[in-house]
Amino acid sequence: MGGVRVSPGPINIIVPTGSLGSGAVEEEVRLGVARGAHAIATDAGSTDSGAAYLALGMSKNNRGSVKRDLTILMRAGAEAGIPLIVGTSGQAGGDKNLDWTRDIVIEVARELGISPRIALLYSEQDKAILKAKNAAGKITPLAPLGALDDATIDACDHIVAAMGPEPYMAALRDGADIILGGRTTDTAVIASFALLHGAPEGAAWHAGKVSECGAQCAVYRNRGSGVLISISQDGFEVSPLSTDNRCDPDSVSAHMLYENSDPFRLVEPGGVLDVTDAVYTPVDDRTVKVTGSVWEPRPYTMKLEGAAGGRFQTLMLIGIQDPDVLCRIDEFHDSMLAGLYERARKSVGPEAGDFHISLRMYGWNAVSGDKPPAGTPAPREIGVLFVATADTQEAATQIAKACNAYFFHWPISMDKELPSYGFAFTPADVERGQVYEFKLNHVVHVDDPMELVRTVWIDLRAAEAA
């Protein structure tokens, strides 16, 4: 298994789902194997859900769903004798996230009665090494951040560097049956097997990008979960694994827009994928062939992601249908916010510390924060979320308690009877806990794609023999 060369012809890779734990379909995986798959590759994480998962070393997906998907994929890989490749393990790809996934894999292996050789690719970074790199001018910022300083590095709870395909290629070459990677670009995880076996770089990288979210590149995104990519010397083909779905040129080409500001160029470790001249041609009613993708080599960089816990928050939530308020929402917001600050300062005093209060008007402008244009019709109702942020949880909660009466009864017109708004919970204040944030938006320049990666092997066959 592992790094064994496939037979001549297209290199076929099953991408069973957009993210491990989101619902691989066993029938689809079996169909992919029957169609001659040489590997199974899937991403398992993202920064989409925020910094907490890296800072805490935890997964957003529940353990049961990840174990379910791994059971399907590990069984299929073992039966077919093909490798399983997983990137950004445990949501954020930190060491704790990877170890969490490792434990599930070992548990599933024992339940299935299989003994894979497992490669663990760790990409969490030592702060001393990063400080030395920074001092040598090897770390540069991405917009909108500026130059990195040692204090910011020290402030991070965990820092990862996003790997390219090379660590996966090395593990496959050394005979890995299962690879669990730390933080990795989604595209590199999928492209690695094809690149190892001589596929053109442009086609391999573009196929990885198109298929990174599984069936999201198909016409019907809610039909099925996975896709099969077939990479050859003149391009690649992609088709959904669900027989009730299809790809077309629009659905395939559109995926270059996903999480990418430029629909024609995608920056990856060691180069840029350029699809400016790519051609998308239907092969049949379910399959699209892509040609003309180009890979432009560049000096090797790895994106750094660092996360840390910050201050603490307490929340309250109300719903308002008062027509007077709904006709004057911006005025109401400003008046209430000023009143809440005054109440907190008078009631809590210096113990509140350097605190912050925000009001988020859901149904009006909570997402953007922008004031709607004049003349925007009044909504039927709004939800108002109160957020108190302070240095400690106790301080945030005391601020919320002090503001309780004002929050639920603040009038738009002082000469009218005090209103009572609809509160969502009792007790009204909900302790949210610590706030987590990303501290880094930088890249580190490396001479060797492997230099910031640690590879650890677990050989269950050898362990059983011993």
Folded structure, characterized:
- With 466 residues, the protein is α+β, with helices and mostly antiparallel strands.
- The chain has two domains: 11-123 and 162-300 and 446-465, no CATH class; 309-438, Alpha-Beta Plaits, CATH 3.30.70.
- The chain is built from 14 helices and 21 strands.
- Helix 1 links the parallel strand 1 (11-15) and strand 2.
- The protein starts with 10 loop residues before the first strand and ends with a helix.
- 45% of the residues are buried.
- The model has no long low-confidence stretch (mean pLDDT 95).
Can you give keywords for this protein?
single chain, 466 residues, alpha+beta, Alpha-Beta Plaits, 2 domains, 10-stranded mixed sheet, 8-stranded antiparallel sheet, 21 strands, 27% strand, 3-methylaspartate ammonia-lyase
| SS content category | alpha+beta
Q: How many distinct folded domains?
A: 2
Radius of gyration, CA atoms, in whole angstroms = 26 Å
Poorly predicted runs of 5 or more residues: none
Helix run count: 14
Secondary structure: number of strands = 21
Residue-averaged pLDDT, rounded?
Answer: 95
Largest beta-sheet characterization: 10 strands, mixed
Proportion in helices: 25-40%
What is the approximate shape? Answer: globular
β-strand amount: 25-35%
Short account of what is shown:
With 466 residues, the protein is α+β, with helices and mostly antiparallel strands.
Topology:
Blueprint: E1 11-15, H1 26-34, E2 39-45, H2 52-56, H3 63-80, E3 84-91, H4 95-112, E4 117-122, H5 127-135, E5 139-141, H6 150-155, E6 158-161, H7 166-173, E7 178-181, H8 186-196, H9 201-211, E8 227-232, E9 235-240, H10 249-253, E10 265-268, E11 271-274, E12 279-282, E13 288-291, E14 294-297, E15 301-320, H11 323-326, H12 329-348, E16 356-362, E17 382-390, H13 393-409, E18 422-423, E19 430-438, E20 442-445, E21 454-459, H14 460-465
Parallel strand pairs: 1-2, 2-3, 3-7, 4-7
Antiparallel strand pairs: 1-8, 4-21, 5-20, 6-15, 8-9, 9-13, 10-11, 11-14, 12-13, 15-17, 15-18, 15-19, 15-20, 16-17
